[in-house]
Please model this.
Amino acid sequence: MTTALQDCQIKIIQDICKSFGNQAGELINVLHKTQEAFGYLPANVQQLIARELNVSEAKVYGVVTFYAFFTMKPKGKHKISVCMGTACYVRGAEKIVDELKKELNIKVGEITSDGKFSLDCLRCVGACGLAPVMLIGDKVYGRIEPKEVKGILESY
Ligand code: FES
Model:
């Protein structure tokens, strides 16, 4: 079951679709802009985009789930991502994730009840020399140890 979109939300999505000429070929660009506006792409938003661009809902869903940068779940004000690529994994990324789960009291893929933080894992972010790597928003924390996690979170 999905909740209904508000009129203002519908208008924003329709305007984004219109700005790309309601072209099916612009689906990825439309999804990017819409995620920028809403933070995530829930089912009801995908349905409206499918209608506006005249493509199937399955196609929109397929694109959203294929690309890691699209998300169907809301994210926290500060989005925490821990790299789980080989170098980071070998150097203890899992322990960083465990510490974050404990401090934030959430699981991977969840958001704290106050909406401040969300926690996700990523594949290699290309900073293997700094393994293990954690990102909060765009800020990169390298060579971190579990004992540093609490202090980092408190600085937000
Ligand atoms: S494996 Fe983590 S940055 Fe490459």
Q: What stands out?
A: The two ends are 35 Å apart (CA to CA). The longest strand covers residues 78-83. The CA atoms of residues 103 and 153 lie 9 Å apart. The chain is about 45% helix and 10% strand.
